[in-house]
Amino acid sequence: MFRNQYDTDVTTWSPAGRLFQVEYAMEAVKQGSAAIGLRSKTHVVLGCVNKANSELSSHQKKIFKVDDHIGVAIAGLTADGRVLSRYMRNECINYNFTYESPLPVGRLVVQLADKAQVCTQRSWKRPYGVGLLVAGLDESGAHLYYNCPSGNYFEYQAFAIGSRSQAAKTYLERRFENFTDSSRDDLVKDAITAIRETLQGETLKSSICTIAVVGIGEPFHILDQGTVQQIIDTFEIAAEQEGPAAEPDAAEQSAAAADQGGSTDEGVAPMDI
Amino acid sequence: MNFMASKQPENSLLGPEADSQRTLYPYVTGTSVVALKYKDGILMAADMGGSYGSTLRYKSVERMKSIGKHSLLGASGEISDFQEILRYLDELILYDNMWDDGNSLGPKEVHNYLTRVMYNRRNKFNPLWNSLVLGGVKNGQKYLGTVSMIGVNFEDNHVATGFGNHLARPILRQEWHENLSYEDGVRLLEKCMRVLLYRDRSAINKLQIAKITEEGTTISRPYSLKTYWEFSAFANPAQGAVGTW
């Protein structure tokens, strides 16, 4: 995308009928580290890649529990994601207090989308720079939704967002037809495999990924590292390829920088005349 | 300028509160509602009287209404407050339907919503002067609960409001059991309503019985109960107590 005279604020249309600020916000999602989700009839699994800035720091939290029956994985500006998670938790808790019943995930997703839309139509606001994969249950079973900064939302059988998500998407596209009837464990295995795809050869270990599950009869929870490592080992999912130690580090750093919102390579493209 | 505002002396310390209109006492009231769980759902009974103090002023008041697809609400107490509650619920169900997403509010959700409404009004010292009975069936699950005007709420296999608590509940405690047939349930409710008719001064002999099952709600046409007044003790009331009137 190139800079143009219609991209300064979100309340300016381009002649082609585009809102560039909104599209730029979607770019921010693509720069974040990968998050994937897949669902069967009864369970939904979320997974994400955790890249820490350096060996000294901890990694950013990208999967949030919203309620016993809803969880969310984010990609993009994690601060925006945290704020939206807080909003979602609030909505769930208020609904539960009034009706003593869990908020159907489909309704929460619409509320979230409407909230995002507001930011695309106010001159003093900016769109949220985060994509959310919302996993949850309602009366009709398990659901996976993707909420965009644009205010759109879509339901998916499986999806991946963030950097190098195309690799995961390709893997998921090959396998998604079987997901509806998958067992919970197979779903988790597929999620971990999809995460591996985004790592492009780097060794898959439980320290660089997070997996969370929600299902009918199973409240949303994040799997602990030990369990995840066990699954990786059991199914020998870890990539066989082993480059020299330097390579994985370099890959880690550039991806970590991406999380902060755009590496210096991207920069400002020449102005469109 | 509001000439109808309540008169306060100039040195009143009451401030803005004195102007507000709060419910202090009910005017047109309905008496007991009785309900029980049976094999296929919930049975609820209420008479059709609306009393204006000690006068039986209105005799065709429907005190039970169906709410959405899954619930049935019965009310005793101030009739105008019951109508207000129906308007709140109408709006609630409308918005629920507008989602059009396969999810719907069941009896449990409606009951809890009503509890919140009643309790919050009570906290503002402006209660909705009703005791409500909320019953329904959703996805095979039967639900029966009650909320009072101060927000006390609970669920049970059989509930009643007002005099029903004193006269009907003891009968139900003795004779209710799981999986009552429809006929047995109706018979049991009629037994309770008959006692209430004999002993509750605000009861009238014109009642409706409502049934809610997974399939839907039916509210019966109004009918009356047979009564018996030829008990020998009534023939000569002064027999055991000379001088009584």
TrEMBL record, chain A:
<dbReference type="InterPro" id="IPR023332">
    <property type="entry name" value="Proteasome_alpha-type"/>
</dbReference>
<keyword id="KW-0647">Proteasome</keyword>
<feature type="compositionally biased region" description="Low complexity">
    <location>
        <begin position="244"/>
        <end position="263"/>
    </location>
</feature>
<keyword id="KW-0963">Cytoplasm</keyword>
<comment type="function">
    <text>The proteasome is a multicatalytic proteinase complex which is characterized by its ability to cleave peptides with Arg, Phe, Tyr, Leu, and Glu adjacent to the leaving group at neutral or slightly basic pH.</text>
</comment>
<dbReference type="InterPro" id="IPR035144">
    <property type="entry name" value="Proteasome_alpha1"/>
</dbReference>
<comment type="subunit">
    <text>The 20S proteasome core is composed of 28 subunits that are arranged in four stacked rings, resulting in a barrel-shaped structure. The two end rings are each formed by seven alpha subunits, and the two central rings are each formed by seven beta subunits.</text>
</comment>
<keyword id="KW-0539">Nucleus</keyword>
<dbReference type="InterPro" id="IPR050115">
    <property type="entry name" value="Proteasome_alpha"/>
</dbReference>
<feature type="region of interest" description="Disordered">
    <location>
        <begin position="241"/>
        <end position="273"/>
    </location>
</feature>
<dbReference type="Pfam" id="PF10584">
    <property type="entry name" value="Proteasome_A_N"/>
</dbReference>
<comment type="similarity">
    <text>Belongs to the peptidase T1A family.</text>
</comment>
<feature type="domain" description="Proteasome alpha-type subunits">
    <location>
        <begin position="6"/>
        <end position="28"/>
    </location>
</feature>
<dbReference type="InterPro" id="IPR001353">
    <property type="entry name" value="Proteasome_sua/b"/>
</dbReference>
<dbReference type="InterPro" id="IPR000426">
    <property type="entry name" value="Proteasome_asu_N"/>
</dbReference>
<protein>
    <recommendedName>
        <fullName>Proteasome subunit alpha type</fullName>
    </recommendedName>
</protein>
<dbReference type="InterPro" id="IPR029055">
    <property type="entry name" value="Ntn_hydrolases_N"/>
</dbReference>
<dbReference type="Pfam" id="PF00227">
    <property type="entry name" value="Proteasome"/>
</dbReference>
From TrEMBL, chain B:
<dbReference type="InterPro" id="IPR016050">
    <property type="entry name" value="Proteasome_bsu_CS"/>
</dbReference>
<comment type="similarity">
    <text>Belongs to the peptidase T1B family.</text>
</comment>
<comment type="subunit">
    <text>Component of the 20S core complex of the 26S proteasome. The 26S proteasome is composed of a core protease (CP), known as the 20S proteasome, capped at one or both ends by the 19S regulatory particle (RP/PA700). The 20S proteasome core is composed of 28 subunits that are arranged in four stacked rings, resulting in a barrel-shaped structure. The two end rings are each formed by seven alpha subunits, and the two central rings are each formed by seven beta subunits. The catalytic chamber with the active sites is on the inside of the barrel.</text>
</comment>
<comment type="function">
    <text>Non-catalytic component of the proteasome.</text>
</comment>
<dbReference type="InterPro" id="IPR050115">
    <property type="entry name" value="Proteasome_alpha"/>
</dbReference>
<dbReference type="InterPro" id="IPR001353">
    <property type="entry name" value="Proteasome_sua/b"/>
</dbReference>
<dbReference type="InterPro" id="IPR016295">
    <property type="entry name" value="Proteasome_beta4"/>
</dbReference>
<keyword id="KW-0539">Nucleus</keyword>
<dbReference type="InterPro" id="IPR029055">
    <property type="entry name" value="Ntn_hydrolases_N"/>
</dbReference>
<keyword id="KW-0647">Proteasome</keyword>
<keyword id="KW-0963">Cytoplasm</keyword>
<dbReference type="InterPro" id="IPR023333">
    <property type="entry name" value="Proteasome_suB-type"/>
</dbReference>
<protein>
    <recommendedName>
        <fullName>Proteasome subunit beta</fullName>
    </recommendedName>
</protein>
<dbReference type="Pfam" id="PF00227">
    <property type="entry name" value="Proteasome"/>
</dbReference>
